[in-house]
Amino acid sequence: MRSYLSIFIPLCFFFSNVVIADIDQSQFTVGQQKAAVCMTCHGADGISTIDTYPNLKNQKIQYMVAALKAYQEKQRTGGLAILMHAQADALSEQDMLDISYYFHYAK
């Protein structure tokens, strides 16, 4: 059992680094530029300093895209949704993907 762990644990670290290295740096940079307006409320690193605004850091890409589309289509109406409606209206689907990509991989 111990010999399996001595092989398995280093492999986990190796593969976790491989995944990190596979980030598309150009999409990350484009997403960071497009996300500048988001940072006003959601924080520069995706961690909001305002309790009523959610954190975006490490959020799943498809979840964020779906949420942005729901704001764009006025399907989300609670709380401060009206602010997000205006923001989402200005975004293309590619913008949503780029912004979501940035916040998903932000460190």
TrEMBL record:
It holds the Pfam family Cytochrom_C. GO terms for molecular function: electron transfer activity; heme binding; metal ion binding. Keywords: Electron transport, Heme, Iron, Metal-binding, Transport. Signal peptide: none annotated. SUPFAM superfamilies: Cytochrome c. This is Cytochrome c-554(548). The lineage of its organism: Bacteria, Pseudomonadati, Pseudomonadota, Gammaproteobacteria, Vibrionales.
